[in-house]
Amino acid sequence: MTLKDHLPHVHLHGSDHESDKGTAESGESSKGTKKSFLRRIVSGGSKSESENEESASTERPRSDLEPEIVIELPPAADFHVHLRDGSMMETVTPTIENGGVNLVYVMPNLVPPVTDPETAIAYMAKLQALSPRTTFLPTLYLHPSITPETIAHAAKLGIVGVKSYPRGLTTNSDSGVLSYEQFYPVFQAMSDYDIVLNIHGECPSTPAEDVAGIEDQDITILNAEAKFLPTLLSIHQQFPKLRIVLEHCTTAAAVEAVRACGPTVAGTITAHHLFLTIDNWADDPFCFCKPVAKLPADRASLLAAASSGDPKFFLGTDSAPHPKIAKQGRSGNNKTVAGVFTQPYAVQLVAEAFDKVGMADQETLERFCCKFGRDFYKVKEKGLEVEGKDTRKIVLMKGMGEKVVKEIGSGDSAVVPFRAGEDTWTLTWKE
Ligand SMILES: [Zn+2]
């Protein structure tokens, strides 16, 4: 299979939405209709031609429908993505644009992890070749081999952040952190060079075989994030100038903790955690990720934070592709792997979630998906993306009959996106 087989098919639809009927059914639907759209559809990989046509007819937006809502935004920024390496990288990287995103903050948990600046820069070059109009921001994996000197060098090469993983907790985290104190000299250097610390904020679970229990160590995936929050606070108190992002907040307690910290601490919120609760992943590996989705009240708190206009919260999808067979526990140790793949539908999912609480308006979506993350990361101030290089807009439409594709890629590396086969908003790019 060539790379071209993985690339989204590009269709130009100049007249589909040029409505001269003037009979829009809602006041919203006439907005932005006299536009030509560059439509990109994720293709199903190596399916036969007839299968492709069949899936296209059910998965693509229907040109005979008028959108119920149309929202135009600048391109979004996704401050937490997993793009992997090898063929998986080739499959998923071209889908960034499908999700309305033109800037991504790339996680370093490859095998082996990205722990030196040169490797990170070389990785960005590979990604850039796969999605030329996307801006890729490089990170390092917090590891004992990283020293204050590494940080000085990283700053010179344009590394934006360092990600810490608690050991053994999620995908490729065997090299992760056991204790944070040993990294205080590194954190001081990061603070001095204004490099961001990204934290996967969970404590490892109490070992299952420890049936007698350990005092004060009663930890499972349900309270792993809440148990971590004191560590976040202590790192922040120790390094008040160090910019810290608590990644993928999943609890009301995490939202409160981020709010309680100073302006140097922010939190990312994923798209899928705006939909899921415990019941969803309990019997569905495709909804299973770390941190796991929690209670309905936690989900409500995340939705409220994301749509509140508080600049401390912005989009980081934590889109994490795994082969379908690995999610189904059919590879390796018969267990499922943690991660939900949302990349091709990043902004569409947020719009749909915000719509459920009556918050899918242009300003609210733009702040959460486009603005607050860029502000926190000082994208403009530091020149992290070339100003004026990308003047495109994204156009979101509700009610176009589009469905999430069933899978992306093919064979053993096929990936099933979040909410495969379900209704989704439509997203197009406008030059
Ligand atoms: Zn992640």
Give me the secondary-structure topology:
Elements: H1 3-6, E1 9-13, E2 37-41, H2 49-59, E3 69-73, E4 76-81, H3 86-92, E5 101-106, H4 117-130, E6 135-137, E7 139-141, H5 148-157, E8 161-164, H6 184-193, E9 196-199, H7 224-238, E10 244-246, H8 252-260, E11 265-269, H9 278-282, H10 296-306, E12 313-315, H11 324-327, H12 346-356, H13 362-376, E13 393-398, E14 426-430
Zinc ion binds at residues 80, 82, 107, 318, 320.
Comma- or semicolon-separated keywords:
TIM Barrel, six-stranded parallel β-sheet, three-stranded antiparallel β-sheet, 15% strand, binds zinc ion, Metal_Hydrolase, hydrolase, metal-binding
Could you state the order of secondary-structure elements as H and E? Answer: HEEHEEHEHEEHEHEHEHEHHEHHHEE
* Hetero ligands: zinc ion
Radius of gyration: 21 Å
Distance between the termini: 31 Å
Q: Main sheet: which strands, in order across?
A: 7-8-9-10-11-12
CATH superfamily: Metal-dependent hydrolases
Name of the CATH class = Alpha Beta
Structural class: alpha/beta
The domain tally reads 1
Using the coordinates shown, work out and report the CATH topology.
Answer: TIM Barrel
CATH architecture: Alpha-Beta Barrel
Which range does the strand content fall in?
A: 5-15%
Principal-axes shape call? globular
Q: Tally of extended strands?
A: 14
| Major β-sheet annotation | 6 strands, parallel
Global mean pLDDT? 86
Give a structural overview.
The radius of gyration is 21 Å and the shape is globular. Helix 5 (about 150-155) packs parallel to helix 6 (about 185-195). The chain has one domain (about 75-385): Alpha-Beta Barrel (TIM Barrel). The two termini are about 30 Å apart. About 30% of the residues lie in helices and about 15% in strands. The chain has a 6-stranded parallel beta sheet with strand order 7-8-9-10-11-12. A 3-stranded antiparallel beta sheet has the order 3-13-14, with helices on one face. The protein contains 13 helices and 14 strands. It has about 425 residues and is of the alpha/beta class.
